[in-house]
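Re-running the complex after MR caught last week's input typo. The corrected sequence lines follow. Everything else is unchanged.
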Amino acid sequence: MHSDPTDLIHRAQQGDRTAFEALYRAHAGRVYALCLRLTADRALAEERTQDAFVRAWERLATFRGESAFSSWLHRLTVNEVLLRRRAERRREQRVLTSDDPAALERPGAADASSGSALDLERAVAALPAGAREVFVLHDVEGYRHEEIAELTGIAVGTSKAQLFRARRLLREALNR
Amino acid sequence: MTGPHMETKLNEYVDGTLAARERATVEAHLVDCAGCRAAIVELRALVTAAGALPKSIAPERDLWSAIDARIAQRATYNVHRAFWRGALAAAAVLVIVLSLNRLLPPSTAPYRPAGQGWAAVQADFDRTTSELGLIFAAERERLRPETVVLLERNLAIIDAAMAESRAALARDPASVELRGLFAAAARQKVELLRWVVRVAAS
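Corrected-run output:
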């Protein structure tokens, strides 16, 4: 199997599922981490990771190489997670819980994190959904407030307010 | 630290987004305020720790088989969908062609007295183009962005021509020439939308 990312993308765009699987293997961890932090729910994160890759497969033809494939995929993932959450919120069938920090205590995460990082992961998972999303996108993923506003449909001022609220709640949680 | 205003300023100070003057004001405040200095230290530590969190976490189970199954299922669904969309488009075109024939001059279509059936024909046309338009809206993401821009520009030109024909026909409903103009623009629109449906489904 070729490992050249450009070749893999090109082959996947032609419908080669083996090439797309290789892309999945290369990016699954990054996409799953994003989904896990945005949802704070392990089962939901697995679901959203699948949704994101299925969506990526459907939209591969629109990837023109103007940005890195990983950036394109991450943006698509954020869109997918937020879109689904908005739809679920509208249906009012599911209340997202923020009490599943255990999702972030699996061996994979713990191995890569120090004790304080794990505390931070738990505290982030316990944030209210809106504050958590903005914190993850801004402080963990490095998105700007303007990009977050575009992705989430909130105003730039609201994005800032949610970030500062998240940081206050996190400082309180970590100081306990 | 006191109040939400100061909290905002301290966060913006840490993010480096304050204007020089405001930054100087905050720095002057920090000299005398131990609480805000401590808050700055905590905020910086938090932002640094967040940025240093692992960017990759392996899922506990392999998700590929489920993704692959969904992709395969989607491919089958797309074949069926393409067939039905094609059938729907063909049906829509048939309705429009039959409707438009009623508007054509006597030499090319059975003659109808002035104005007869005109409202029904327009309603037929509006409904069918609306259905094709919905397909276009649903499938536009499958097309290249520049193709979408070009399509939208052409559709706008055709719509403008049809709006002019409609307005003129409202003033002169018996005009065979105006009916012909409307029919020509309508055919163009149908052809364009048929092409979209065909390309998007392929």
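None of the earlier attempt is carried over here. The radius of gyration of chain B is 31 Å. The helical segments of chain B are 3-15, 20-32, 34-51, 64-101, 118-139, 145-171, 176-201.
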